[in-house]
Amino acid sequence: MNHRTVAVLAATVFSSVALAGCGGSSGDSSSGPVNLTYWAWAPGMDEVVALWNDANPDIQVTVKKQASGDDLVTKTITAAKAGNAPDLMQAEYQALPTLVSNDVLADISDQVADAEDAFAPGLWQQVTLGTDAVYALPQDSGPLMFYYRADLFEEYGLTVPTTWDEFADTARELKETEPGKVLTTFSANDAGLFAGLAQQAGAQWWTTEGEQWKVAIDDEATGRVADFWGGLVAEGVIDNQPMYTPAWNNALNTGEQLAWVSAVWAPGTLTTAAPDTAGKWAMAPLPQWNAGENVTGSWGGSTTAVTNDARDKDAAAAFATWLNTDPEALTALVRAGGIYPAATAAQTGEALAEAPEFFANQPDFYVTAAEIAEGTAPAAWGPNTNVAYATFNDAFGEAARTRGDFRAALTAMQRATADDMTGHGFQVIE
User: Fold this and answer.
1) 284 forms bridges with which residues in the sheet?
2) Is the pLDDT of residue 19 over 70?
3) pTM across the whole model
4) E-strand spans in 198-258?
5) 218 close to 414: Cβ distance less than 8 angstroms
């Protein structure tokens, strides 16, 4: 596939939010230091960038803190249309196609040719969009894994599931012996988790064929995931309530819910949601569709991208490479920003030598996490991920609430996404 395929497709902004007050590059590469502007939201980024600035007087980077998510995507697209985008930006993986199709991001494949081996293949594929271009460098990742109350699993005689069939059997066994308990819940208020589960199953929601986009959200792999979770909800052996609510927090804190499929960042959430349970949880690999495999999906994570408005793309790419591959930079990102680095070498580095405090009972937490992360499956994102996610929240939210038809919800998600792309001028096949 031609490496410009994605960039030359019909482009539009998929957010209706109007944003102003954008600031871009400054400085002149022909005299004096190169001054680069970096839009980012990760905490502690100023502290990390200061290390670069101290060591590189000829290339100085200024961090301008931004909101994350769709707000930053829209703001950057608006700035790019005025020729005033920042030199660099932090971008979530699923936002890259939208930014590329709006001609915001530069292809930095020539500048970062040696960086690929620093990352798991599944993550690298996400910054190339499956082409021979490179539109960003992976910064942090969110490999999915299985969290469970080790004390209650022991008390109720449960075995940690290694396959999804075993997961379903465990949910049924627990409900039969302890009717007031549930293994977990299916939540429809964060589509990222469902997307990661579909990714593990082999889903490719958006792909390109020449000048056309193929939308396959209702593919066989995702249908398998929808049927699996819909079946457990319909049986009543897992809960159907959303995450992050006071009721959900209480279920985790009291042991009413024994497990949570989540990402590597879950310890921070559990610290707040279930403060009385510190030291009682354990983490294990995500259950597999085929016994003996090591495949996981992603929930969250971001990249560092260079924009087409960057005055010195070589300098910007050099900084982005340092930020995401240099041991000192990665240690600082972990300690100051609390991220889980995408670079595989840093996942077992000094900064992650100790388990999260909430998991002090599992000293090999990050060793296990690194092994899980090696199996991160590739993901395929499209230019209107926000539409797909919003439809998921509505359609799957209703299906979960009524213990209804998850396949119909998946069909609704497919239809809304494909129709939205067609309506915005993309050539779409299904």
Assistant:
1) 146
2) no
3) 0.89
4) 206-209, 212-215
5) yes
CA 403/CA 186 separation, integer angstroms: 10
Distance of CA 311 to the CA centre of its chain: 29
User: Could you tell me if 387 and 70 are in contact, meaning their C-beta atoms sit under 8 angstroms apart?
Assistant: no
Task: Specify the pLDDT at position 211.
Answer: 86
- Contact by Cβ (8 Å): 135, 305: yes
What angle do helix axes 385-402 and 406-423 make, rounded to 10 degrees?
Answer: 160
Q: Parallel, antiparallel, or unpaired: how do β-strands 137-149 and 26-27 relate?
A: unpaired
The pLDDT tens digits for 167-196 are 999 999 999 999 999 999 999 999 999 999
Token pair 């995450």 is found at 243
**What three-state secondary structure class fits 226?**
helix
The two tokens of residue 332 are: 């600082």
* DSSP per residue, 282-333: EEEEPPBSSTT---B-EEEEEEEEEBTT-S-HHHHHHHHHHHHH-HHHHHHH
Q: How far apart are CA 274 and CA 252, in angstroms?
A: 6
Q: Is 71 exposed, middle or buried (0-12, 13-18, 19+ CB in 10 A)?
A: middle
* CA atoms in the 13 A half-sphere facing the CB of 196: 27
Q: State both tokens at 110.
A: 């020539």
Q: Tokens 């502690």 map to which residue?
A: 44
Distance of alpha carbon 13 from alpha carbon 7, whole angstroms: 14
> What is the identity of the amino acid at 111?
Q
H-helix or E-strand spanning residue 279: none
CA dist 50 and 428 (Å) reads 45
Distance CA 156, CA 143 (A): 28
Query: Which amino acid is residue 222, in one-letter code?
Result: T
Q: Answer whether 119's CB lies under 8 Å from 141's CB.
A: no
Give the SS3 label for residue 85: coil
- Give the DSSP letter of residue 120: -
